[in-house]
């Protein structure tokens, strides 16, 4: 969805399988994680995390393993306990418990799933086989979209960029099986090799579905050819960070003119979209490319393409041979994990994805204390105050733009913990012996829920993450910051520890999200969430110069042999990291005053930086690093730590670093 391209979260975790080692070693902030042999001024990340990294090798079923994943593991254990109980078919279960319990039970029933084979997909395969005319493509794509199968493009709803009070229909690029369009277009050895492996994977999936090796091979080539055409028509991920580049408001007739070969009226009817006229298209060129593809591709090739996406999309809930093959490519090849995660963890994730607020409601009741909200709110206010002071003191910004920035800051609202109103899934039929069907029906509910918003007032209380999620986000169109209950725990937030540690943890996260309102993307939206310029041209130029410094700094970091961070893709996150740590430190110093004492031999400033560094302690496989750098707007953890501290004189003072040491560079970058 277009909207999600814009949610600026703190953690890269969502893109990766997160799940976890059996023994979460350290729950709280712990000075024993420090590598005392390392010099904090040479490599602060190694100093803060060295012992943790030695003691916490990446588990076989993980692509990366860090403090975020440790906490996620603890949350998952809590969710498992809830689901194990809910899954017992005892009389008297309330309807929400029955839904999540039966969904989970169906997912866990590997034996039953194996026995049913591909039968749960038969009706869909039949429909695809019976397509007899290209005029029917639109209705079939609508059907696939409704049941959550990616195909050709994406259709949903979202706030209008230039009128955030309106919800409009949105059309976006999509329909590929590799993680990003660049995977189809780059010519380096690794990319060519990955494409060969993808082809082999698609072929094996068709073979498992009963095709001969020759037919399956030809099918895989068809899929690759069609997806490559879609990739060529797609915008790259750096362009997609620019809201102006993906905002093309149109009428239905304009869309029809872009792609006249597609039966749009049949599509909207099949998708069960409400009546509407206004529609925002992310990339008109993409829909022109689709038009060419519809004209040039045979009906038989379309059948192959749909068949692949159906198999691919449902693979995790198909018989174990499909699950294994899906893991071989998307797990082992793309992320470097050597083992599949245990089934219960995958099923907890599916339940969280599809019935998230039903499961989340129980999770919150069992884990989130009454005081959690209040304490977090206090910190949010301390951070907002510090960011206000930071804006007022900024040396490079004129009074006019400062005033605008302060108005925007004041307008930011926050949501903490969990929704005030829980989503009602009662219309979703869940059956204990139908994992695939449950998935289709839950996806259908979500697809319809999104379309039903078109033309309705914006629901400002809605959440885009579920309560157990270990992450947080800023939404530029809502101009709000959001902190799920899942992250409001150690090591981020610990009611039993000193302020320095909490400000370095959850304080940094709050500062990060607030700063997103003022990064290269967020700054283009006004206090009401409209894409509207409130900067003087001179201040905008000053901003861009400072942002270019951050871009260059991170682009110079090497994460794996021959692999550099993409400074432009990660600019917003890096800006938020730098601003977030700075305002969190300001808020800490405002809170504790001057008389705070050393603890464990460290000053409050040192403990603040150590706490910040340690929430990012994380090991990552090279494959996963490559995937992250190619697709994810967050820098890898080590650089999120060292990239920030080398820009901060406060850090250099705290650890007595000398000018010229790696963490005390002469050329520091500062935006906020
Ligand atoms: Zn972020």
Question: Would you write up a description of this structure?
Answer:
There is one protein chain. By secondary structure, the chain is α+β, with helices and mostly antiparallel strands. It is 52% helix and 8% strand. The chain is built from 26 helices and twelve strands. The strands form four sheets. It has a four-stranded mixed sheet, with helices on one face. It has a four-stranded mixed sheet with strand order 3-4-6-5. A hairpin with a 2-residue loop joins strand 10 and strand 11 (563-564). Helix 2 packs across helix 16 (356-367). The longest helix has 22 residues, at 372-393. Bound molecules: zinc ion. Residues 8-10, 512, 516, 573, 576 line the site of zinc ion.
List the defining traits of the structure above.
binds zinc ion; four-stranded mixed beta sheet; 12 strands; 672 residues
What's the β-strand tally?
Answer: 12
N- and C-termini, Cα separation: 30 Å
Overall outline: globular
Helix content: 40-55%
Bound molecules: zinc ion
Main sheet: strand order? 1-8-9-7
Task: Report Rg.
Answer: 25 Å
Largest sheet, if any? 4 strands, mixed
Task: Please mark out the parts with pLDDT under 50 across 5 or more consecutive residues, or reply none.
Answer: 14-25
Structure summary:
The protein is an alpha+beta fold. It has helices at residues 44-55, 67-86, 95-108, 110-116, 122-129, 137-146, 182-185, 189-208, 213-233, 252-258, 264-271, 284-296, 299-314, 320-335, 343-354, 356-367, 372-393, 399-411, 435-452, 499-516, 537-555, 571-592, 604-615, 622-631, 637-645, 649-654; strands at residues 8-9, 64-66, 153-160, 163-173, 248-251, 278-281, 413-417, 473-475, 480-484, 558-560, 563-564, 618-620. It starts with 7 loop residues before the first strand and ends in an 18-residue tail after the last helix.
């Amino acid at each position: 969805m277009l909207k999600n391209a814009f949610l600026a979260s703190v953690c890269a975790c969502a893109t990766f399988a997160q799940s976890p080692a059996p023994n979460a070693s350290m729950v709280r902030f712990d000075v024993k994680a420090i590598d005392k042999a390392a010099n904090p001024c040479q490599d602060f990340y190694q100093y803060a995390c060295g012992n943790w990294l030695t003691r916490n090798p990446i588990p076989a079923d993980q692509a990366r393993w860090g403090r975020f994943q440790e906490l996620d593991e603890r949350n998952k254990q809590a969710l498992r306990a809830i689901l194990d109980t809910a899954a017992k078919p005892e009389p008297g279960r309330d309807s929400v418990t029955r839904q999540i319990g039966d969904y989970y039970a169906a997912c866990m029933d590997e034996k039953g799933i194996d026995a049913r084979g591909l039968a749960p997909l038969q009706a869909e395969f039949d429909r695809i086989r019976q397509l007899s005319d290209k005029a029917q493509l639109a209705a079939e794509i609508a059907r696939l979209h409704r049941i959550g199968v990616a195909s050709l493009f994406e259709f949903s709803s979202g706030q209008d960029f230039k009128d955030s009070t309106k919800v409009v229909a949105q059309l976006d690029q999509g329909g590929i099986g590799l993680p990003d369009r660049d995977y189809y277009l780059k010519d380096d050895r690794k990319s060519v090799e990955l494409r060969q492996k993808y082809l082999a994977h698609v072929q094996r999936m068709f073979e498992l579905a009963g095709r001969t090796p020759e037919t399956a091979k030809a099918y895989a080539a068809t899929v690759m050819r069609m997806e490559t055409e879609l990739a060529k028509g797609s915008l790259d991920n750096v362009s997609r960070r620019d809201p102006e580049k993906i905002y093309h408001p149109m009428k239905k007739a304009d869309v029809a003119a872009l792609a006249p070969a597609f039966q749009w009226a049949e599509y909207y009817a099949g998708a069960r979209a409400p009546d509407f006229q206004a529609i925002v298209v992310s990339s008109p060129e993409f829909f022109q490319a689709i038009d060419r593809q519809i004209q040039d591709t045979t009906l038989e090739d379309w059948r192959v393409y749909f068949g692949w996406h159906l198999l691919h999309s449902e693979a995790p809930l198909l018989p174990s041979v499909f699950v294994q093959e899906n893991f071989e490519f998307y797990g082992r090849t793309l992320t470097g994990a050597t083992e599949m995660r245990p089934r219960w963890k995958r099923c907890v994730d599916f339940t969280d994805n599809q019935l998230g607020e039903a499961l989340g409601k129980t999770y919150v009741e069992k884990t989130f204390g009454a005081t959690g909200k209040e304490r977090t709110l206090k910190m949010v206010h301390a951070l907002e105050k510090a960011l206000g002071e930071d804006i007022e003191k900024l040396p490079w910004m004129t009074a006019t733009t400062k005033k605008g920035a302060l108005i925007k800051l004041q307008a930011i609202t926050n949501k903490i913990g969990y929704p005030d109103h829980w989503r009602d899934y009662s219309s979703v039929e869940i059956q204990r012996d139908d994992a695939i069907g449950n998935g289709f029906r839950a996806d259908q509910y979500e697809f319809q829920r999104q379309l039903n918003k078109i033309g309705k007032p914006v629901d400002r209380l809605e959440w885009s993450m579920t309560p157990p999620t270990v992450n947080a986000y800023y939404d530029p169109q809502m101009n709000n910051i959001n902190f799920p209950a899942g992250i409001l725990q150690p090591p981020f937030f610990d009611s039993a520890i000193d302020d320095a540690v909490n400000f370095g943890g959850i304080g940094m996260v709050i500062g990060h999200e607030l700063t997103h309102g003022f990064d290269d993307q967020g700054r283009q939206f006004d206090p009401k969430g409209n894409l509207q310029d409130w900067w003087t041209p001179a201040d905008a130029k000053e901003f861009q110069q400072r942002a270019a410094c951050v871009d260059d700094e991170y682009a110079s970091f090497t994460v794996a042999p021959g692999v550099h961070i993409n400074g432009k893709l990660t600019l917003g996150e890096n800006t938020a990291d730098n601003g977030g740590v700075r305002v969190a430190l300001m808020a800490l110093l405002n809170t504790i005053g001057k008389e705070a004492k050393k603890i464990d031999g460290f000053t409050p400033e040192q403990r603040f930086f150590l706490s910040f560094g340690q929430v990012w302690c994380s090991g990552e496989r090279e494959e996963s690093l490559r995937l992250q750098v190619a697709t994810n707007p967050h820098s890898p953890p080590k650089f999120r730590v060292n990239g920030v501290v080398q820009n901060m004189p406060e850090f250099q003072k705290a650890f007595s670093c000398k000018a010229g040491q790696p963490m005390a560079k002469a050329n520091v970058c500062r935006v906020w």
